[in-house]
Amino acid sequence: MKTPARIACSCLIACLSTGAQTRAADAQVERLTMAVPGVPPVFSGLLAFVARDQGFFKKHGIEVEVRPFDSGGAAAQAVVAGGIDFSLSPTAVIVRMVSNGNVDLVGIYGMEHPDWLLGSTEPGKKCGDLKGEGVGVDSVGGARAVALGEFLRPCGLKPDDVKLVSVSSNVGAAMIGGQIKFGVLHIDDLPVLEEQMGKPVSVISSFRDVNPLTHYNLIIANRDRLKQRRDAYVRALAALVEAVRFMNDPRNTARVAQIATVTGRTAKVAADVVPRLEKIEFWPVKSDGLTRENIERVIKVEQQTGGIRPGKTPVPYDRLVDATVWKDANALAK
């Protein structure tokens, strides 16, 4: 028979052992920070919130803090500065940063199909009518501002020919409030605008109209940090791969819509928007979304439009992209 002293000792040893195991488990959990565009976040970053809220990061033994930034460009700058481990940022912005500033950023996953629309609160407006007008964008150099440059090209205008109004992801709110008549919008902006204004939004152009071969976003990291912590990045990307699969399953639409309320949209609006985005393969589910032809097209356009400054060498595709991370992540997710 065990004496009370022996029982107490055994309990103490068990507690100490359990505590040591817990500390060891905590030490094994990799921690990363991921930046997504928009305050509140826009739908492109929804995959990160799904991975977090559905436990996919945890499943792969990683803890990821998801931080919204005013724009994807600002998020990329935070990666360069070292405060963020990886971000979802506009491809054109990354092409400019690497080409002009020789920063060593590398893309490990991509979104090829933008959902941008150029809209107006007034009917019958055309591209040429934007000259001298205020146009809502996220920030100077941000994703909406870059998209605006593409919208203006067919009518011979440039961003310098209009007045950029920087309002982060609140372009729709600025249009509803009468601050601006024109704005670069996401698909999810339309139902909200039309409901609150009580009239249809005039869509001047969609991005597919002006540039069917393009590339929208990259998940990027600092190359040296990626080398140092490659396993952590692979596991984080595996979680995102599983999140995208979850999002593309119609049975999960209600749950995804609920998570999507982080964007500031209601679950009802999100339930309408998510299938529309899936229809244009907004979040690639069967590939890494890093198609050479699409990304090289962006590089060429940035060189032609002056995004890549004269005298600077455009970044080659093979430097900008590392497809091996997604390959390993996809295998891990399976």
Short summary of the structure?
The chain has 16 helices and 10 strands. With 334 residues, the protein is α/β, with parallel strands linked by helices.
Supply the key terms.
D-Maltodextrin-Binding Protein, domain 2, 10 strands, five-stranded mixed β-sheet, 48% helix, alpha/beta, 334 residues
Please describe the topology of this protein.
Elements: H1 4-28, E1 30-37, H2 46-53, H3 56-59, E2 62-69, H4 72-81, E3 86-90, H5 91-101, E4 105-111, E5 117-120, E6 134-137, H6 143-152, E7 163-166, H7 171-176, E8 182-185, H8 189-197, E9 202-206, H9 207-210, E10 217-222, H10 223-228, H11 230-247, H12 253-259, H13 267-279, H14 292-305, H15 317-320, H16 324-333
Parallel strand pairs: 1-2, 1-3, 6-7, 6-8
Antiparallel strand pairs: 3-10, 4-10, 5-8, 5-9
Oligomer: single chain
Total domains, how many? 2
The best one-word shape is globular
Number of helices: 16
From the alpha-carbon coordinates, what is the Rg to the nearest angstrom?
Answer: 23 Å
Helix-strand category: alpha/beta
Overall helicity: 40-55%
CATH topology of the largest domain: D-Maltodextrin-Binding Protein, domain 2
Structure description:
With 334 residues, this protein is an alpha/beta fold. The chain folds into two domains: 28-112 and 215-333, Periplasmic binding protein-like II (D-Maltodextrin-Binding Protein, domain 2, 3-Layer(aba) Sandwich); 117-210, 3-Layer(aba) Sandwich (D-Maltodextrin-Binding Protein, domain 2). The chain is built from 16 helices and ten strands. It has helices at 4-28, 46-53, 56-59, 72-81, 91-101, 143-152, 171-176, 189-197, 207-210, 223-228, 230-247, 253-259, 267-279, 292-305, 317-320, 324-333, and strands at residues 30-37, 62-69, 86-90, 105-111, 117-120, 134-137, 163-166, 182-185, 202-206, 217-222. A five-stranded mixed β-sheet has the order 2-1-3-10-4, sandwiched between helices. Strands 7-6-8-5-9 form a five-stranded mixed β-sheet. Helix 6 links the parallel strand 6 (134-137) and strand 7. The longest helix has 25 residues, at 4-28. The N and C termini lie far apart (52 Å). Residues 20-27 have low confidence and may be disordered.
